[in-house]
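Technical note accompanying the year-one report. For the benefit of new consortium partners, we illustrate the data format agreed upon in the data management plan: each record pairs a sequence with a C-alpha cell string. No post-processing was applied to the example shown here.
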Amino acid sequence: MTREEIITGLAEILNEVADVEPAEVTEDKAFIEDLDVDSLAMVEVIVAVEERFGVSLPEEELKELRLVSDIVLRVEKQLTA
C-alpha cells in the first residue's frame, strides 16, 4: 500500500467521522488545530484506521498523534514490518 493510498483512506475516514473535506487532509495538517477534530472524534478515527488498515495504534499513543503524518507513518511502518 502506498503512502498516497494511506492518506486517501485516512481522508475518507476523517470525512465520515468528523466531516472533514478530503481535500483538506494533507500530511502537514494538525488534527485539532487545522482540521477541527476533537478528542472524541480522534478515538473514532483511530478505531476506523485500525479496522481499515489492519494495524494497531495503542491508546497510550493517542496524544502523540497530532499531525496527519503521525498516523500515516505508524500505519506505513506496521504495514511494511
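Partners are asked to follow this layout when depositing records. The radius of gyration is 11 Å.
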